[in-house]
């Protein structure tokens, strides 16, 4: 195995070495490393996690790059089948097909295609599809569903094989994979080689502007190596002879963008949304150190306030539990110092997490049925991006007097009485 962690020296986007130190989380566990209960967790891996920003291209990144061998050894990512995510997949497919006039029978390739849910949407629209996902178990599941999938890493090596056997794709899609990749050059070179003159490479990433403005520091963890703005992605692709021809902004996952990239000389004129979002980024301070310093101050404040709130409740004899056990909740709890001493449990619908403990904080994960039978006084809502839906669905808990703590952007306690006032904050948070 190679070194478990390396520190980034030159910027993976612009090649310069001019970093601004933004925020240091200290040693953090791996956010998806759910553990079997044990008498001692002394062997649990922890790695430093420093957030840095490139003063040249404004890429936000984690300095420490944990080796994929370590990061994904026990990785069991199951793509969500929530209605919100399925609707989003349809929106992305419709947008790509109509905006770039994809004729029926066009080849669509998805990088990181998981079990093939997104490609099924394209198939229903009459497209030919090919999935690429290095996780063999996921590729097998996709193939069993009839979505042809190669269990390979997408890169220049594979591009030649794809060209030979399938021809040029009109669309290559990568949803939420770019932020995980250390060496972007190999992936971009592969896409460049595959795209015909009209072809489009569509890349979806969480949007840095939402992260900064929404104080979403909990979405920072080792797997997410890069945090992108439109301006930074434009520079990245320009460096490789490509051009961002359009961008669309979506509300899912706390806010994401899909950038559509073509050959520099491609027929597609650059859409005005590219210029508009870049202007918005400049106006919002993303090309200025101050915005990142303010983000660090604000997230530090939230960490202290949330930690004090939960510890205060526990010292008054209140029972507090986690609602949900998403990876980002593990950044939140570890950053705030909220552990199994404070939280009775965290309930989650994902079966493989149940019976395990959360990384770093060792809070036991239980089923929603257990939580229903053992309700706390306060639920700390870890998947805060679904706050509106969850609180709407759990009205009966509120009516029983149980309160919800929505942690991000700032801690907000929601009770049955305050629900009306909170509704505004939740829909605008
Ligand atoms: Zn840079």
- β-strand amount: 15-25%
Rg over alpha carbons? 22 Å
Largest sheet: 7 strands, mixed
Q: Give the uncertain stretches in residue-range form.
A: none
Provide the CATH top-level class of the largest domain.
Alpha Beta
Enumerate how many helices there are, as a single number. 15
Bound small molecules, by name, code or SMILES, are:
zinc ion
User: Between the first and last Cα atoms, what is the distance in angstroms?
Assistant: 43 Å
- CATH architecture field of the largest domain: 3-Layer(aba) Sandwich
- In terms of quaternary structure, what is this? single chain
**Extended strand count:** 19
- Do you know the CATH topology of the largest domain? Rossmann fold
Q: Structural class of the helices, strands and pairings?
A: alpha/beta
Q: What is the helix content?
A: 25-40%
What integer is the average pLDDT? 94
């Amino acid at each position: 195995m190679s070194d478990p962690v390396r520190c980034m020296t030159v910027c993976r986007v612009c090649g310069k070495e001019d970093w601004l130190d933004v925020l240091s989380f200290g040693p953090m566990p791996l956010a998806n490393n759910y553990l079997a209960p044990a008498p001692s967790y002394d062997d649990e891996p922890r790695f430093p996690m420093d957030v840095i920003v490139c003063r040249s291209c404004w890429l936000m990144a984690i300095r420490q790059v944990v080796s994929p061998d370590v990061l994904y050894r026990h990785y069991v990512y199951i793509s969500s089948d929530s209605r919100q995510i399925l609707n989003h997949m349809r929106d992305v497919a419709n947008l790509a097909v109509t905006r770039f006039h994809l004729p029926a029978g066009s080849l669509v390739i998805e990088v990181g295609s998981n079990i093939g849910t997104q490609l099924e949407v394209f198939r229903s629209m009459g497209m030919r599809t090919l999935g690429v996902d290095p996780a063999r178990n996921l590729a097998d599941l996709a193939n069993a569903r009839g979505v042809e999938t190669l269990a390979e890493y997408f890169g220049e090596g594979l591009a030649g094989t794809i060209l030979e056997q399938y021809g040029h794709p009109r669309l290559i899609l990568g949803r939420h994979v770019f932020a995980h990749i250390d060496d972007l050059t190999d992936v971009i070179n592969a896409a460049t080689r595959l795209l015909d003159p009209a072809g489009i490479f569509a890349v979806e990433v969480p949007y840095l502007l939402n992260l900064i403005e929404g104080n979403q520091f909990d979405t920072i963890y080792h797997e997410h190596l890069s945090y992108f703005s439109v301006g930074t992605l434009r520079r990245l692709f320009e460096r490789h002879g490509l051009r961002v021809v359009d961008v669309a902004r979506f509300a899912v996952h706390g806010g994401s963008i899909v950038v559509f990239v073509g050959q520099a000389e491609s027929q597609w004129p650059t859409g005005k949304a590219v210029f508009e979002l870049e202007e918005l980024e400049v106006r919002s301070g993303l090309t200025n150190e101050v915005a990142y310093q303010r983000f660090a101050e604000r997230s530090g404040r939230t960490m202290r306030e949330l930690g004090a709130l939960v510890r205060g409740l526990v010292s008054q004899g209140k029972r507090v539990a986690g609602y949900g056990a998403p990876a980002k909740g593990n950044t939140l709890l570890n950053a705030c110092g909220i552990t199994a001493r404070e939280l009775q449990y965290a309930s989650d619908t994902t079966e493989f997490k149940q019976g395990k403990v959360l990384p770093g904080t060792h809070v036991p994960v239980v089923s929603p049925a257990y939580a229903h039978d053992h309700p706390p006084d306060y639920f700390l809502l870890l998947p805060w991006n679904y706050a509106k839906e969850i609180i709407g669905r759990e009205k009966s808990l509120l009516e029983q007097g149980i309160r919800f703590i929505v942690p991000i952007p700032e801690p907000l306690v929601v009770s049955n009485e305050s629900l009306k006032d909170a509704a505004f904050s939740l829909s605008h948070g």
